[in-house]
């Protein structure tokens, strides 16, 4: 473990008080934001300058569940419905997603990948997997699993708070 990482871990485990301006590098929110920046850099460098991570998330869900609708796509990908709608429109414009009406409910739009969308998905999925491996290569296999487990717990808790309408405490 690097010196900065060890020092950060020491501060986090010591439970630095929130009022202590000593070091933002002990704050999980800051580290999550920085990890997202690293992910963004690696995505652009290794995966695609044309397909965003959000677009890839959408085409991944559609590839796994052809005929899904916008609401299910939104729920599965963790995107709000307005963002999902805008992403779908961009994917349709690029010729990667086709829309069909549900014969049982003509208001419902069913989404599927076009042959070009499938080609893009297949190509980007391989590079995204390589990028993910590169991003976590400094972690041992058990640590990788632990990282995913902890992030999943944070996301699930955040979703529970959001659904309950909890607001952040004010200072």
TrEMBL record:
Gene3D superfamilies, alphabetized: Winged helix-like DNA-binding domain superfamily/Winged helix DNA-binding domain
Matching InterPro entries: HTH_MarR-typ, MarR/SlyA-like, WH-like_DNA-bd_sf, WH_DNA-bd_sf
Gene Ontology biological-process entries: response to stress
HTH marR-type domain ranges (all copies): 2-156
Lineage: superkingdom: Bacteria
GO MF annotations, alphabetized: DNA-binding transcription factor activity
Protein known as: MarR family transcriptional regulator
Upper classification of the organism: Bacteria, Bacillati, Actinomycetota, Actinomycetes, Micrococcales
């Amino acid at each position: 473990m690097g010196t900065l990482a060890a020092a950060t871990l020491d501060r986090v485990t010591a439970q630095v008080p929130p009022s202590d301006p000593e070091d933002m590098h002990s704050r999980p929110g800051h580290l999550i934001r920085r990890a997202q920046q690293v992910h963004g850099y690696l995505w652009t460098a290794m995966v695609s300058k044309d397909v965003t991570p959000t677009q890839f998330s959408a085409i991944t869900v559609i590839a796994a569940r052809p005929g899904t609708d916008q609401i299910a796509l939104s729920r599965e990908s963790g995107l709000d419905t307005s963002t999902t709608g805008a992403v779908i429109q961009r994917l349709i414009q690029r010729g990667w997603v086709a829309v069909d009406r549900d014969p049982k409910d003509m208001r419902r739009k069913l989404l599927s990948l076009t042959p070009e969308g499938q080609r893009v998905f297949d190509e980007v999925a391989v590079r995204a997997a390589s990028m993910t491996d590169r991003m976590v290569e400094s972690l041992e296999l058990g640590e990788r699993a632990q990282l995913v487990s902890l992030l999943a717990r944070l996301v699930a808790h955040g979703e529970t708070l959001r659904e309950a309408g909890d607001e952040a405490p004010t200072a």
